[in-house]
Amino acid sequence: MDGHELGFLKDPDVIRQLGVLWGKSAAKAAGRMNLLMCHLLDTAAVSEQIWDRYLAPSTKALLEEVAGGHGRGRRFFAWVCGVHDCGKATPAFQQMDEVGAQAVRQAGLTWMATGGQDWRHDRAGGKLIRDVLRGAGWSDDQIAWIWPLVAGHHGKFPSSGRLTEPVRARGHLHGKGLEWRRVQSAVVEVLTRQLGFDGLKDVQPLRVPSRADQLHLSGLVVMADWIASDERYFPGVDDLRDVSLVASRERAAGAWEKLGLRGGWGKLEVPGANAFQDRFGEKPRRSQVMVTDAARRMAGPGLLIFEAPMGEGKTKTALLAAEILAGRFGADGVFIGMPTQATSDPIFSQVRAWAGKVSPGLGSQVALLHGKRRFNREWQELLEEVGDSPDDIYGTVDEDALYGFSSSSAGEVPERRAPAEWFLGSKRGLLTPLVVGTIDQLLFAATRTKHVMLRMAGLAGKIVILDEVHAADVYMSQFLLEGLRWLGQARVPVVLLSATLSPTQRRALVDAYLAGASSREEPPALNLSTPRGYPNVTAVWVDGAGPHELVDDRSSWRKDLDVRVEVLTESPHAKSEPVSSTHADVVAVLTERLRDGGCALVIRNTVERAQDTYQALRAHFGEADVYLLHGRLHAGHRADRTREALARLGPSTHHRPRTVLVATQIAEQSFDVDADLLITDLAPIDLLLQRIGRLHRHDGVPRPARLREPCVVITGVGACDKGAPWILPASDAIYGRYLLLRTSALVRAADNSHWKIPGQVPDLVAAVYGDEAVVPEAWAQAEAAAFATWEAEQRARATSAEKFLLTRFKEHENKTLEGLHYAETKADEEIVHAIVRDGEPSVEVVIVHNDDDGYTSWTGRRLGPNGEVPAHLVDEVLGGTVRLPAKLAAAAEEELQPLAGWRGHPWLRYSRALKLDTQSQARLDRFRVRYDNDLGLVLDNPQ
User: Fold this and answer.
1) Which of the four, 74, 289, 496, 717, has the lowest number of CB atoms within 10 Å?
2) With contact defined as beta carbons under 8 Å apart, do 743 and 688 qualify?
3) pTM here?
């Protein structure tokens, strides 16, 4: 910038001062100081790239409307992003580097020592921009939503009371006197004029966006700041004459190309009538046409719920519905949230194939976002060009931390690591246009955590698809409902998939979305229709006339299965009884039913019970026919076992070998096996029906004569001759006695008769979760006591979630983001995962074996003297990752550390090693822990 460009300032002293205010010191910027004005213009230039090459059409339309009309949105967006670091134009920041501070003082900007008082530059920026905009004549309501974007750009939105510098600083951290006021105004004014505005008054937007839109915009500000902080593409510029928007635009364009960033499909045409055949190579079923027609008929962005049985093709339907909604309402990508990490992987492949047909090359842009993605081969191929440590290239974008002052608290992930999780380039992170991950990514977006705005920026502008939402319990549902509120307010179309929902669940989901879409604490009045048939679709949206609904149903493509229900009564067993005795009845049933071959699935409610059952069956049938799958197998074994299970129990037109798979609840969801016979512990009716969905799943599979009738044998429940039945205590602890009693009543009523599946599914679910009497009179007292306990626990769990929710009760109608982080949840990813899932924090460890010669991997491959891992063994070592039970988490955090040879490795430096001796054992707290290659992780009783 030369004197002509800055002539409007009319003061050479101010120009000289702009030439010394630094944004990053030479000591922290590879030897060359970077001027503050340069970074502001760099960030504005990056935001222009974001606008041109990343933002969804719907987001652009929103910003145009906010800014005051067509053609104003892009400049306004650049200004909002660029002004983020104006708080560095204060002594609070300028004093942090001795060399830089000396130059600032010599230019006439002075301050007094503040005795160790400090003030973060983001909060200083919130006060500064508020004061400057008031001076420019902005209205209070517009200032009120802009300053939190500046004050919160490092991840937390403070209250207005937190903007003030410490009293003991006596104004010296903000800068006292006319000199500081003039240069602070000049910083904002120069940015403003460089972007083509006539002045600050010209920038003022026309309307205030919703809080959800503000949160989305805030995330984009952070995104622009992070890109512009990459020293590889934005090296220091220390001469004001070399600073210009033209130069910044050149740097930003180069950075964008090198980083490989891009948006999704851009402006998408609404797919035609033959789209399903084109995308998936098959004709759509009646229920699939019903859903896609509903997506075409919705008059505005809204919520679409598709309830259908397992095997109906819900995922394909949702993808085409997302494509329709994107074309109609301007979304530029999709987020698919699955219930578990294991269910995300197969969907990842399916979404990549679909995306490649929507737009050539788009399949490579799909990100897999969960903690085990390292073990997904497709994902590994996408990561190769990034290298082992992609987070390190970003340094830190929390400048206050660079100079020894940070708001990070103990237990909080340092901001430097955030890009490794959220922002690694065009092929990864929630900011990627197409993302497959766990539903936790949405649940995290509903928590009051640092950088929550990045979560919203990664969801807004997309279509959000959530699968198996019926599995969310009352605690987890609080985060789901909070997330739906924010998505509704942001006008994000959401597609929910479920085997079935109770009327109460369906209503709660609809109300949350409509309340958000209406920007109200309570949802608008809507007499929501109940679907009459199954499969069914429920769609709702809001426009100027209020809420609207569309409810429809179709018959399933498959005829109902007459599933025989049998109860195998069980009674309490003494712990001293041998395993073979405890599970003798199950062994007997399988011996009889599998006499001529066949495939059986046995689902147990706990890992220990599954391990015991497996041992009993293996002793009888031999090792070749019996398999075990649960969550305490390490990653390598679990992946192998899953492949084996799918190979042996998957659909086939040939006779399959006799197989018994013993599994835990991981077999409930998105696990495409086809069992001839199912034996399962009692579970609440919706989960029990999910398990039954693994039974006779496909047509045309040859089955032994005695297994041609689908049959479910229910265990874990006792006889009920004199009142309510005994129920397995472990099941009671997991699910609660109330739902198990009501489910048991339906099971008893159907014993040795049949359920029509899926036709009866809605009625069965409604019976258990409704208010009608279903248990025998002899059980009534036990049911009443169980209900009282269950109801109290439900209230307590819902209440316990409130303190972590993004918005406090009665604050959903707030107009700005001020004070959103009033009591931030300070936690790393593991703890936040435990928070949204209502569990104790659990810890993953990497198994290594320790002998007299040093360390070996779980496969026996020798490591370095201190555990150093050669590059070709990294995946193998990480394959030994296993999650410990929650009761060992505290001991693991205290006692287990990375091996010395791992501390410099990007993937292993955060991994805790579980060192097993030559007997594959270790002592952890009071427990003896051992890893058995057949059983997985085994805990012996505490001593």
Assistant:
1) 289
2) yes
3) 0.88
Cα angle 24-906-914, degrees, rounded to a multiple of 5? 135
Q: Report the percent of the chain where pLDDT is more than 90.
A: 64
Residues 6+ apart with CB under 8 A from 82: 40, 41, 43, 44, 47, 191, 195
Distance CA 198, CA 912 (A): 57
CA 823 to CA 630: how far, in whole Å?
A: 37
Instruction: List pLDDT tens digits, range 768-782.
Output: 998 899 999 999 999
Residue 309: C-alpha distances to residues 362, 463, 536, 743, 753 (Å): 30, 23, 10, 19, 21
Beta-carbon count within 10 A of 579 CB: 16
Q: Specify the 3-state DSSP secondary structure of 772.
A: coil
Q: Reduced to 3 states, what is the DSSP secondary structure of residue 358?
A: helix
Q: What is the pLDDT of residue 432?
A: 82
Instruction: Please state, in angstroms and rounded to a whole number, the distance separating the CA atoms of residues 497 and 159.
Output: 38
Q: Which phi-psi region, left, alpha or beta, contains residue 261 (left: φ > 0; alpha: ψ -120 to 50)? A: beta
- Distance of alpha carbon 813 from alpha carbon 863, whole angstroms: 58
432 neighbors 426 (Cβ within 8 angstroms): yes
**The one-letter amino acid at 166:** P
The label of the residue with tokens 């403070």 reads 158
Q: Tell me how far apart the terminal alpha carbons of the chain are, to the nearest angstrom.
A: 74
* Residue/partner pairs of 250-254 with CB below 8 Å, 24 or more apart: 251/42, 251/45, 252/42, 252/45, 252/46, 252/48, 252/49, 252/227, 252/228, 253/45, 253/49
Which residues share a beta bridge with 398?
none
* Nearest alpha-carbon partner for 784 in 729, 741, 720, 730: 741
Which of 178, 74, 169 minimizes the C-alpha distance to 123?
Answer: 169
Distance from chain centroid for Cα 830? 12
Radius of gyration of the chain (CA): 30
pLDDT (tens digit per residue) in 546-602: 999 999 999 888 889 999 999 999 988 655 555 555 689 999 999 999 999 999 999
553 phi/psi in degrees, rounded to 5: -150, 160
- Strand pairing of 659-663 and 626-629? parallel
In which element (H, E) is residue 88 found?
A: none
According to the model, what pLDDT value does residue 414 have? 37
Contact between 56 and 264 (Cβ < 8 Å): yes
Q: How many CB atoms lie within 10 A of CB 527?
A: 6
Task: Map tokens 């980083």 to a residue.
Answer: 259
Q: How far apart are CA 71 and CA 225, in angstroms?
A: 23
Residue 131: CB atoms within 10 Å: 17
- C-beta atoms surrounding 493 within 10 Å: 30
CA-CA distance, 97 to 24, in Å (whole number)? 9
Q: What angle do CA 512, 518, 522 make, to 5 degrees?
A: 50
Checking if the pLDDT of 18 tops 80, the result is yes
The whole-angstrom separation of Cα 528 and Cα 511 is 10
Which CA distances in Å does 516 have to 298, 329, 334? 17, 18, 20
CB-count exposure of residue 282 (10 Å: 0-12, 13-18, 19+) = exposed
From the list 229, 248, 238, 144, the residue with the least C-alpha distance to 191 is 248
Query: How many angstroms separate the CA atoms of 72 and 425, rounded?
Result: 28
For residue 773, the model assigns a pLDDT of 92
Question: Which pLDDT tens digit goes with each residue over 645-683?
Answer: 889 998 899 999 999 999 999 888 767 789 999 999 999
Is the peptide bond between 531 and the residue preceding it cis, with omega within 30 degrees of 0?
no
- Decide: residue 895, CB within 10 A, 0-12 exposed, 13-18 middle, 19+ buried: middle
Nearest to residue 75, comparing CAs of 203, 255, 228? 203
Can you tell me which residue has the tokens 């509704």?
488
